[in-house]
Amino acid sequence: MAKHKLKSESVTVGTTAVALSSRVKPVLSCVVQATNAMFIGGSDVTTSNGFAIAAGASVNLASLAAFRGVHEWDLTKIYLVAASPAQNARVLYSEES
Question: Among 23, 24, 27, 51, which residue has the fewest nearby CB atoms (within 10 Å)?
């Protein structure tokens, strides 16, 4: 049985889309918490087309994974953008150790 460990990162988000992480290894689950309002989506995410995350709110990507049949997430392909520069987000994820 594989062992899993939790890791966390902080991401600075501005008016240009930024990836959740630069790590290449896929993760098993992921929760994103916005300290300020921001938007999540693909590499083309904007404040107009992104999924809104309210300040202090969290998004659990496991729900979306179950819907899409995804078992791992590539955090380099999930992006955040904010309406103003220098916002922060926290990313908590599980990976095989």
Answer: 24
